[in-house]
Amino acid sequence: MVLRARAEFWDRVSGERRLGDLIGALLAFIVVSSAVYGAILAGWRSGLLSLYVAVKLPGLMVGTTSLVMVLNWMSALAAGSGLSFRQVVAVTYGAMAVACWILLSLAPVTAFFTFGAAGDGGSPEALRLAHNHLLLMHVTLIAFAGVAGNAALRQGLSRVVRPGASAGRIYWGWLVAFAVVGCQLSWILRPFVGSPFYEVRFMRPDALDRNFFEFVLLEVLPYALKGGD
């Protein structure tokens, strides 16, 4: 419905018809599709980590969406949108469902690069470079899917907000909330790609140290941009 019958989706959201069934279906799809992508994401490191990430990535997606929908509802209230909490939940899960559709469609390409371009041998520098390139690829793809998922629902948002409320302002606030919450939650739940210099485990003992943005700027980009030098 979100992909092919978006008008029906917005009619149900606007009229608050059977939103419980709709949210349940969206949630089920998010869990299954992100589990498939998660299994591929960590496959280069080990089968055990692949299993861990197949469990953790759905937790990340659902956790991010659940936290963001509360922020979305608060910002929608502040903007005078007239949206109920159930409507905000449906729209937020709808955006994440579209993002997961995109990730699922990219799974074959992701698997090719993950299993074909990344080996578990070579020098420490080669392993670090492979890990950083894979990490940047997955961060880019997931970020693209998240933006596209929200953008897919942007046009319809103006149909359900109260006249006079700025749908564009609400949308950008929601998009920023998705980015900040998703990035930091992914940092706490790491590893996802799996560094070759750490043992495989479900979560890191230093999960609450530092933050995602500091890690990417100081430890990933400098090595990735150096290439093979």
Can you walk through the features of this model?
The protein has eight helices and no strands. The protein has one domain (6-226). The longest helix is centred in the first third of the chain and has 32 residues, at 47-78. It has 229 residues and is mainly α.
Largest sheet: none
Number of strands: 0
In helices, the fraction of residues equals: over 70%
**Termini separation (Å)?**
49 Å
Question: Number of helical runs?
Answer: 8
Mean pLDDT: 84
Poorly predicted regions are: none
Measured on Cα atoms, how large is the radius of gyration?
Answer: 19 Å
Order of helices and strands: HHHHHHHH
Percentage of β-strand residues: under 5%
Task: Please indicate the count of domains.
Answer: 1
Outline: elongated
* Alpha-beta classification: mainly alpha
Tags for this model:
elongated, 8 helices, mainly alpha, 229 residues, 74% helix
